Amino acid sequence: MIEVKDISHTYGLNPTLKNVSLYFEDNKITGIIGANGAGKSTLLAIVSRLLKATSGEVMLDGTSMKKLKNGDIAKKLAILKQFNHINLKLTVRELVSLGRFPHSKGRLNEFDLVKINEALSYMALNDIENQYIDELSGGQKQRAFLAMVIAQDTKYVLLDEPLNNLDLRYASEMMAILRDLVRDYQKTILIVLHDINFAAAYCDQIVAMKDGNIVKVGDVKSVIDKSVIDEVFNHDFKICSIDNQNVIIYHQTTSKKEK
Fold this sequence. Notes:
Elements: E1 2-11, E2 14-24, E3 29-34, H1 40-47, E4 55-60, E5 63-64, H2 70-74, E6 77-80, H3 92-97, H4 101-104, H5 110-122, H6 138-152, E7 156-160, H7 168-185, E8 188-192, H8 196-202, E9 205-210, E10 213-218, H9 220-223, H10 226-233, E11 238-242, E12 245-249
Parallel strand pairs: 3-8, 3-9, 6-7, 7-8
Antiparallel strand pairs: 1-2, 1-4, 4-5, 9-10, 11-12
């Protein structure tokens, strides 16, 4: 289990996280939602140790991450950032192989190859495994990066807005794959999402944030609630239940300029 204890963070004099405490349940998808600047990506970066907290600590399976070596963390936790820039001419297979580096240190063995092949197959990339990643469509490229994370074979997977720049089809497929990862491999997934309806459809638990604070943590119905969502986004939303699932209906409102 990942537990966050009294985490605070500031950029200069600006607080981005304010004494945040929560835990992420194992074998579930936890969606993190909120407006721009709410602290979502900052929280994810601190949990992955890409960013140092100003105060507080993160516990990984009961041990403070401050006491763990980077190599040990990389065998338990993988992160896919919002922007992935690799300035190397790599094929899909070569990219996926990078996921084994925490285990192999660059010397792939038979077990590493099994994991690489499993990841390529799972993400349906075998037909394009020899293509260069800079030649792929946005959806194919995102699948390749996720395959790299799968090959890393960690219990925890952290994703920062992985649906950005994906059309509706590829975004839906990506979320379905994440659900399958929880079911097939008992992964624990933390994901920052902009689209609240994707969070409602695919997540088990949702963390709603605003101005560096946690507004609400709970199951989908308790968080995708008008009082919570209106507070988080400072807007008047309409929420309906469709097939026993709460969804946000985007309806026309009158802007202040028109009044």
